[in-house]
Write a structure and sequence with these properties.
Layout (H helix, E strand, L loop, with lengths): L7 E3 L5 E3 L2 E3 L8 H14 L3 E3 L7 H13 L9 E6 L6 H15 L4 E6 L27 H13 L3 E7 L3 H8 L10 E5 L7 H9 L3 E5 L23 H10 L3 H11 L3 E4 L4 H8 L8 H8 L13
Helix pairs in contact: 1-2, 1-9, 2-3, 3-4, 7-8
Length: 312
């Protein structure tokens, strides 16, 4: 399939996801209003996949951005593909649908296109996003993730969400769902950290075998925000010499080449920026192609290195 800006990939449930997306996470130093403005700019530029999550605490503003572009005629609701996520304190089956409904209320949308279990790690059920004990340690819980999945299946059957999937799961955790008794709906997508320093080749082969579409975050590396970055001394992805050599030869930016690498590897890249010029730059990855040698060279810089800290 020739990749174009409006290309979509068919999911295993028949719905179709755009081949690249716009991410809305931002550190607390950014105002929530900036998320609205960035979403509006992204849609104007051509993005149709908008990725957010309840834990970002900006779904109200993201929803306003989406609805404003529907209202002014730029897009129709069916043109937008919105990804939302179930946070770690809502894994108990009885908390799943209320969490979906809260996101829908905040977004003021009738349905969510793709809803993911944000993480296989579960926190103590309740309204506290990061429940802690007297020593300041996160309090974990142990709901069977398959029970959480059944509750998600019910949300899909009820039409609250079109597709369901997971995020930050490994192969064994995905298999646990795939092999569960009475499975009604396979995961349609998995969202995961994926970039030239973490190419996820083994997991990608597994997902391809099961017709599960991979969506990548941190595709351009990561900022240096404490609590987010696994290693504050980690190399900056966009300064990689191999990446920059290829970008210079192709007269592209390192960010464009980094995303194009994932695109040609079958990964839907999610890039984020609150700067309109950078948003436009990140979107423009469809008018060039990486050669087989370019792909091999970029595959060779893999370090199996994560930017996202999964330590709790």
């Amino acid at each position: 399939m020739a990749l174009k800006a409006d290309s979509r990939i068919e999911l295993n449930d028949g719905h179709k996801i755009p081949v690249n997306g716009f991410g809305t996470y931002a550190p607390p130093s950014y105002s929530k209003e900036q998320a609205k403005e960035a979403v509006m700019a992204a849609i104007d530029i051509g993005y149709r996949l908008i990725d957010s999550a309840s834990i970002y605490e900006n779904e109200v503003e993201v929803g306003e951005g989406i609805r404003s572009k529907i209202a002014d005629g730029t897009v129709k609701r069916e043109n937008i593909f919105y990804i939302g996520k179930l946070w770690n304190n809502n894994h108990c089956p009885e908390r799943v649908r209320p969490a979906v409904e809260k996101s829908l209320k905040d977004l003021k949308l009738e349905y969510i296109d793709l809803y993911l279990i944000h993480s296989p790690v579960e926190f103590k059920p309740g309204d506290d996003l990061f429940p802690q004990d007297a020593n300041g340690k996160v309090i974990f819980h142990n709901t069977d993730i398959r029970e959480t999945w059944k509750a998600l299946e019910a949300c899909k059957d009820a039409g609250l969400v079109k597709s369901i999937g997971v995020s930050n799961f490994n192969e064994k955790q995905v298999e646990l769902i795939l092999k569960m008794p009475g499975l009604k709906h396979k995961p349609a997508c998995i969202e995961m950290e994926c970039h030239i320093y973490l190419n996820q080749n083994k997991l990608l082969k597994f997902l391809k075998c099961h017709n599960i579409v991979p969506v990548g975050f941190s595709v351009l590396g990561s900022g240096r925000a404490p609590g987010w970055l696994e290693d504050q001394n980690a190399p900056k992805l966009l300064e990689d010499p191999v990446l920059n050599t290829i970008a210079k030869r192709l007269k592209r930016t390192p960010a464009q080449v980094a995303q194009r690498f994932l695109l040609q590897n079958g990964v839907v890249p999610i890039a984020k920026s609150f700067t309109p010029a950078r948003i436009k730059e990140n979107f423009n990855i469809f008018d060039f192609e990486l050669s087989e040698k370019d792909m091999k060279d970029l595959d060779g810089v893999n370090k199996n290195m994560r930017y996202l800290s999964l330590k709790m």
